[in-house]
Amino acid sequence: MRGKHLVLRVAVILALLGVAVVPSCKNRNRSMHEGFVGRQTCAQCHAAQAKSYRNSQHDAAMQEPSEATVLGDFSSPFEADGVRWEFSKQPAGYFVETVGRDGEKHEYRVKYTFGIEPLQQYLVEEPGGRLQSLRVCWDSRSKTEGGQRWFHLYPGEQISHFDELHWTGRNQTWNFMCAECHSTDLHKNYSAEQAVYHTSFAEIDVSCESCHGPGAGHVAWAQNGGGSADPKKGLRVSLKRATDIDWTIDPATGSAKGSETPRLDMQTETCARCHSRRTRLTDDYQHGHPILDSHRLELLTRGLYHPDGQILDEVYVYGSFAQSKMYQRGVTCSDCHEPHSTRLLAQGNALCARCHDPQRFDVPSHHHHKPGSSGSLCVECHMPTRSYMVIDPRRDHSLRVPRPDLAERLGTPDACTACHEDQSSAWAAKQVATWFGEKRRREFHFGEALSAMRSGTFGAAEQLARLLGDSTQPAIARATALAESAPFLDEIGIDRVKAGLRDPDPLMRMGALRSFDAFDGPTRLQLGSLLLRDPVRSVRLEALNQLAVVKAEDMPERVRSDFDLVTQEFMEVQAHNADRPYAHVNRGLFYHRQGRLKESETAYLAALTLEPGSIPATANLADLYREWDRDDRGETLLREALVRIPGSAEIHHALGLLLVRKKQHGDSLPLLKKAADLGPENPHLSYVYGFALTSLRQVDEGLRVWTAAQTRHPNDRELLHALATTHFSKGDLTSARRYAKRLVDLAPRHQGFQALWSEISKPR
């Protein structure tokens, strides 16, 4: 009888609501959200989960403004960096008066609230279907925590209405930057022809079907009595573990051990859709498919992460968690977080004690701090925070053991000195050695290899080989190393790349493909053609990118057919992201590599139409004009860009090289010098400037430039080679041998460096 009542109840709900869209979501395309039934339908049978979800951060991710949802004080003005923001509540709603995209003051109505804790943002409508996020936010923390105030996300910065960081700019557009992760079944729907968004969502916030997928099939399953053998119960994805695991505390370690090594399931990848640093590839997200089918995940890229994988830029969670031993052993997000309320399953050390024996770990003999103090909290040592959006501290989810000894060597943060700010990592390392012994935690860490590769230090190739050969290291770290391995392939061998291309982890296959910069066209074709058929979209697209330099006539018919299919996929991805300049730059680069120069020019110009100050589009278009023998156009383009972006080292460099080609050396040298001065972190700019000087017989001045740059970048091989060969040609054997010896010490298996050393070190 109970089953019959369930069927009737669900049938009535479907009749009332339809099968696609919740009635409260107005102006939505019903067919676009086919199969989505809305939270009210889910709540009829899942009342406990619905109650837990209500008022959670997911529930409040985006809301229409009202007395209940607006947290900010709309009676108090705010002034930041010379701009006054007037907030008001009127009969027609909530309003903000401030400087708009034309530099004049306008009044804007708040369309939606955005988030609740620890800050709330506000969205206003702009022409073309855009929603823009205000840069002045409400600090929703308590007064005792410093909250209940307006604040600016870029304090102390003068941001004009021309700046891309202005609230009216492209980088503050909700439709691209924020929307997918704050609403359910978001479709951006950008029309490049009209430059208009037709963005829609099934539900305004992050609701049930954001994670579980469209529910119509599940409702049908319930209508049929729920008795079928379908393990997913009519849903497209099951968020339960792929295998049942019994976790017990291992007496030897004091930590939980699973009854078996589980397969990584879809739960973590489902969360990664939003809780990761990634680029969306398509509107057609399919629940239950690998995350890399719909999104391009970032690796542990320089500038996003520290060399040891600690968070640096705003990278969210997945890239950190994927480094952890917990991830490798099958721990998932819901082992710590209740997914419906989004709250932790326990507070303080009690959460960690679910898997780690408190008698062993929650004691002074382990944490060496006073019980009850902040230093005794597991997360303070194993999940240190970094603040984003001024007031939002976020914890590093790599769950690492503090290694101040590693931090001292690599120049990375460490949890100890995050609290003991008046001390150094060396001091912290000494304290740890005092507590646990000199040899504790001295095992190899992938950060040593990544740091050595990026700085070119002694033994970098050996460190790289060690990392790639150690399958116990996190796949995301090994993939990052592969992606950056091109300069070292002469030393470590091509077999490492081949192994990466065969790896079952798609991140590894992507990383291996990115090493192809070291290969010519035939080698790329031989190694990468099969990956045009990879089951994961991100891998196929990377294979296409690497094979784009191969001429069509050099591809076997089967490969050409695969290449054309993935090219179509690639173009669909760029069309999806056509509101962003980089999508047009991507098209331009692809056409450029294919020798389709006119189409490449059109794509670069489209990028510059969207963002006139785009450095990649400007530099690449100027290079295209060089290849097209139209340097006159390139010079005009670059000179106009210098007026618009006078602080760009890349534009100074490109214009300087162009004038070298025109033999206008007197005009080129100041530009190349300026480029080197603006970009001291890029040793190649100094190398080129020094080369220009030596080519004009200003050898001593060129050597001075290279020597100064090599002091900043002591292991840069290009600079060392230039210094060795130029000193040798001058007859300064002592200096030449010093630099050549450093080269062979850095790369003892590099045949070219060995040959140079043999020549320079001959007795004279």
Overview of this protein structure:
It is a single chain. With 764 residues, the chain is α+β, with helices and mostly antiparallel strands. It contains 37 helices and 17 strands. Strands 1, 2, 3, 4, 5, 6, 7, 8 and 9 form a 9-stranded antiparallel sheet that branches. Strands 10-11 form a two-stranded antiparallel sheet. Strands 12-13 form a two-stranded antiparallel ribbon. Helix 25 (537-547) crosses helix 26 (557-576), helix 27 (581-594) runs parallel beside helix 29 (615-627) and helix 35 packs antiparallel against helix 36 (733-746). Mean pLDDT is 92; it is low at 1-30.
List the keywords.
764 residues, alpha+beta, 9-stranded antiparallel β-sheet, two-stranded antiparallel sheet, 37 helices
What secondary-structure arrangement, pairings included, does this model have?
Layout: H1 2-17, H2 39-45, H3 47-53, E1 62-63, E2 78-80, E3 83-90, E4 93-99, E5 105-114, E6 119-126, E7 130-133, E8 136-139, E9 149-152, H4 174-177, E10 190-191, E11 196-197, H5 208-212, H6 216-223, E12 247-249, E13 256-258, H7 266-272, E14 278-280, H8 291-294, E15 295-297, H9 318-321, H10 325-328, H11 349-352, H12 358-361, H13 364-367, H14 378-382, E16 385-388, E17 392-395, H15 404-410, H16 415-419, H17 425-436, H18 446-455, H19 460-468, H20 475-483, H21 489-492, H22 495-502, H23 506-514, H24 521-528, H25 537-547, H26 557-576, H27 581-594, H28 597-610, H29 615-627, H30 631-644, H31 649-661, H32 665-678, H33 683-695, H34 699-712, H35 717-730, H36 733-746, H37 751-760
Antiparallel strand pairs: 1-5, 2-3, 3-4, 4-5, 5-6, 6-7, 6-8, 8-9, 10-11, 12-13, 14-15, 16-17
Helix pairs in contact: 2-3, 15-17, 18-19, 18-20, 20-23, 22-23, 23-25, 25-26, 26-27, 27-28, 27-29, 28-29, 29-30, 29-31, 30-31, 31-32, 32-33, 33-34, 34-35, 35-36, 36-37
